[in-house]
Amino acid sequence: MNQPHTTQPAAAEGRSVQDYLDETPVWGDGTPVSSAPLTAMQWRIWGLAAAGKFFEGLVVFMTGVALPLIAEEFGMSAFQHGLVGAASLLGILVGALTLGGLADHFGRKLMFIVEMVIFILFLALLATAPSFWWLLTFLFGVGLALGCDYPTAHLVISESIPSNARGRLVLAAFAFQAVGALVGTAIGYLILSFVPDIGAWRLMYASAIIPGIIVLVGRFFVTESSHWLAAMGRVSDAEAQMRLLLKRKPDYPKSVKLKVKAHHHHAHKERHLGTLFKVKNRRATILASVPWFLQDLSTYGIGIFTPTILAAAIGEHRSSVSHEVSDIIANDLLAAKGAGFIDLLLLVGMIVAVLLADRVGRIPLQILGFFGCAAGLLIASFSTNYEGGMQLTLIYIGFMLFNLMTNIGPNAQTYLLAGEVFPTHVRGLGAGFAAAAAKIGAVITAFLFPILLADIGTQILLYILAGTSLLGAWVTWRFQIETTGKSLEDMGQ
Predict the structure, then answer these.
(1) Using alpha carbons only, what angle is made at residue 229 by residues 98 and 242, rounded to the nearest 5 degrees?
(2) Where is the Major facilitator superfamily (MFS) profile domain (predicted)?
(3) CB 64 within 8 A of CB 306
(4) What is the DSSP letter of 161?
């Protein structure tokens, strides 16, 4: 029986980092095998990166359950509601733009560790916040860590795996944002059930501290990106890290000899924000940032304030002006259950995205998803023309379609594209800038959504968001760069 084997060019010839990552076995008669199994180190990197996305979904969406309790404890106004909703998102914006870009200067691994230290520190402080303004400060700090994670988690995965698996593995990790959203809602519900107290929100945030410490320890034991090391001219270090990354039993490859492309040697001279707007990178910057901004306008507004919209539709919004603890908690439990049911479609959509990203392509899925989001928002907007069961049915159908299509399309693909379309030496900066642009949309929505709900009503607000989704589809089509199956070393060339 033929056994698969691999063939490797003579070491003296040298190969690129991606050549080593993309190499697949060949049967004895010369028939190639479609893929090689990932090593233990590659899976470790993937799992620890997925954990970061899980924590983002957990904390951001848990805020939707915690908010009524926080509002009661600190006597918050509608304006202060908006500040709480926007604080962590503003932190993500700043973290993605500032800390995320540091991965291009100091390496992927260091920032992978630093972001988790920041996350744990501010999460512990958040759970003990003594006042409203300290609460905002600590939420911002948690957001800084999550913002750094946007580019860093993507890069540590995408720069350590084969090109033909990059899409599905990056998105499979990103799917843990949806898992975190579900778990965050569930934890909020369970804690409220067993601890029906205004201060229960503190336990919600504290529940992530110990898991965070476990992930932090694990991140000390991963390899540095050989792509980044090679781009910095540290070829011998890149070869050593590649051997650790691809360590198998039996050992293969037995030696690593890298051939670094000439343009890498001076890459460190062009790592500043202006580089993203030079002619060779401008199209990538527009594609990575503008659709993501438009997508986050609706995704975070719907995600965070679904409980509020549901409670209003069911007629339970009377608790928003009630200061009876039992009323507030009962309403919060009801909204948490409804939001959790709708959020299930986030996970379903992400599973579909994982299955299709490397087959259908990023651009077609993003365009289709934007159209689906617009359709879902329009269906939900029609609910204002009805009362009772029909009103609730249209809200559920509309929001469930929106959640499904956003994770098949723009919520998944914008994240994926942002970490792929830039050259290695500014990949962290480019992905961080795109994430920051997206969070500008999220901050705007989180702050203005409760105000606009009161001032212009649900229907007009949903019309506006449907329009931004259609605009996102057009921008994606106009500035498209398809990265499916392409080597990261070819990006920006």
Answers:
(1) 125
(2) 45-484
(3) yes
(4) S
What number of other Cβ atoms are within 10 A of residue 252's Cβ? 15
pLDDT reported for residue 478: 96
Rg value, the chain, Cα: 23
Rounded to a whole number of angstroms, the distance between the first and last alpha carbons of the chain is 44
CA distance 135 to 262: 50
pLDDT of residue 231: 87
Q: Looking at this protein, which amino acid is placed at residue 411? A: N
Helix (H) or strand (E) holding 402: helix 388-408
User: Residue 403: what pLDDT?
Assistant: 85
Domain spans of the chain?
40-222+266-480
Which residues, in sequence order, are CB contacts of 82 under 8 Å at separation 6+? 446, 447, 448, 449, 450, 451
Residue 488: closest CA among 166, 96, 85, 263: 166
The amino acid that residue 24 corresponds to is T
Give residue 405's identity as a one-letter amino acid code.
M
CA distance linking residue 147 with residue 97, whole number of Å: 8
Tokens at 155, concatenated: 């890069």
Please tell me what DSSP assigns to residue 484: T
The CATH number for 40-222+266-480, chosen from 1.20.1250.20, 3.30.70.1520, 3.50.50.60, 1.10.10.10, is: 1.20.1250.20
Per-residue confidence (pLDDT) for residue 59, from 0 to 100: 84
Residue 440 near residue 293 (C-beta atoms within 8 A): yes
List Cβ neighbours of 424 (8 Å cut-off, separation of 6 or more): 159, 227, 228, 230, 231, 264, 267, 488, 489, 491
Q: Give long-range contacts, CB 8 A cutoff, 24+ apart: 214-218.
A: 215/48, 215/51, 215/52, 215/55, 215/116, 216/113, 216/116, 216/117, 216/120, 218/44, 218/47, 218/48
> DSSP 3-state assignment of 3?
coil
- Token pair for 200: 């229960």
Nearest to 421 by CA among 309, 315, 292, 329: 292
* pLDDT value of position 10: 44
Q: Count how many residues are written for the chain.
A: 493
**Gap between the Cα atoms of 112 and 436, Å rounded:** 18
Q: What gap in Å lies between CA 332 and CA 340, rounded to an integer?
A: 12
Beta strands in 203-329 (DSSP E): none
Distance (Å, whole) CA 292 – CA 411: 7
Mean pLDDT of successive 10-residue segments in the chain (493 residues)? 49 75 83 84 96 88 79 83 79 88 91 96 94 93 92 92 89 86 82 82 92 96 93 91 91 85 54 80 94 88 62 49 53 58 75 89 95 94 79 83 90 91 89 90 76 76 91 96 84 63
Q: Which two tokens stand for residue 174?
A: 């990103």
Q: Are 230 and 20 in contact (CB under 8 A)?
A: no
Residue 267, CA atoms < 13 Å, CB-side half-sphere: 26
- Helices 427-455 + 279-314 axis angle, to 10: 30
Give the pair of three-digit tokens for residue 449: 């959504």
Q: Which residue has the tokens 């204002």?
A: 384
